[in-house]
Recover the amino acids of this structure.
């Protein structure tokens, strides 16, 4: 079979051996007599799939049990709203880095929910870039600092992440697991699965429990 | 192969021939060299799948081109919020029928967004029931009237739907396509796919364009 490698925006290539395992199990999942699509989400077979995926991802990210991993819907874009809805309370400020299209989209949604301060704005810079860590204007006591690890449209990637007291939140949709990094330094990492992790339709959130 | 038929809450049985077709195409979709999970959501192969599914559902529901069909995420439960967010504006009232657990859940979300009037309340009635059409207290000029076609937990199903000037909105997750009905009399029908339409992970919204 001649494989086509899709490098377009949106869903990306999956390993053939993963597709073949999913295919083999699709009608009768490991002798259960059911497709995974027919199972109770509370059943032991599905629970085992969920636990294994969670454990594998934590291993790859080097995260311990102070973190939870969630598999959600709505894409990374829904997280643009869910994060401020959950963590940007009345009277609080969240710091956001605007480094391009995705950072700007996150800021637009957060402003519908609460008060946003721009820690740095490189959206229109030519050549495209992310700010240096020393450029960031941080709000004392900010609810969190949000950044986009890799801006795919303009093309700019953080090489070194900020170290600060503010809880760090990052959209890592396009480069998660593409390089080693200290995931434990973040309070919340989110990523649409379709670029680097799995099929489209799932968004991964790794969140520090405290 | 001994098939297990899952009748629990949550995902339900799918036709084996549908699963087998999905399985056959999973690694190499109709000779495209890609899995459907690897394709661009803007590509012609995926667009054709989308158009066929939309057209098939419109045919089954007897809907014409005054309706659009959307395939969304977040379950029918996210529609509990999305519907008032989109259609319950400031200064407006939405009428809701509380006929059980699902109706009450829809009301709870709508009250976070805007003003809700209870057109009928049978939630605690024993034996469980839905209200008669003549019992409904409708608000003149209401943004919409929301009902749950079948309350699965308590067990109560509408046999005859209201006919009124208020735009009708229905959660039909558990009985859509299980019986003929006049879908064109509704302004918005939504249903989690996992009971009667397809695998979990997709929510169908059929909406009148005006």
């Amino acid at each position: 079979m001649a494989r086509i490698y899709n490098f377009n925006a949106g869903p990306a290539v999956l390993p053939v051996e993963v597709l073949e395992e999913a295919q083999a199990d699709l009608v009768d999942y490991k002798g259960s007599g059911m497709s995974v699509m027919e199972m109770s989400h509370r059943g032991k077979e599905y629970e085992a799939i969920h636990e294994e995926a969670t454990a594998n991802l934590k291993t790859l990210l080097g995260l311990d049990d102070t973190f939870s991993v969630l598999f959600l819907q709505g894409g990374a874009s829904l997280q643009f709203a869910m994060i401020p809805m959950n963590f940007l309370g009345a009277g609080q400020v969240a710091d956001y880095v605007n480094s391009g299209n995705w950072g700007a989209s996150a800021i637009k949604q957060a402003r519908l929910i609460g008060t946003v301060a721009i820690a740095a704005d490189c959206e229109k810079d030519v050549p495209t870039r992310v700010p240096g860590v020393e450029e960031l204007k941080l709000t004392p006591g900010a609810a969190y600092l949000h950044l986009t690890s890799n801006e795919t449209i303009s093309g700019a990637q953080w090489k070194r992440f900020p170290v600060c007291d503010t809880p760090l939140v990052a959209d890592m949709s396009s480069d998660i697991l593409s390089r080693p990094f200290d995931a434990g330094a973040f309070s919340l990492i989110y990523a649409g699965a379709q670029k680097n992790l799995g099929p489209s339709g799932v968004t991964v959130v790794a969140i520090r429990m405290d």
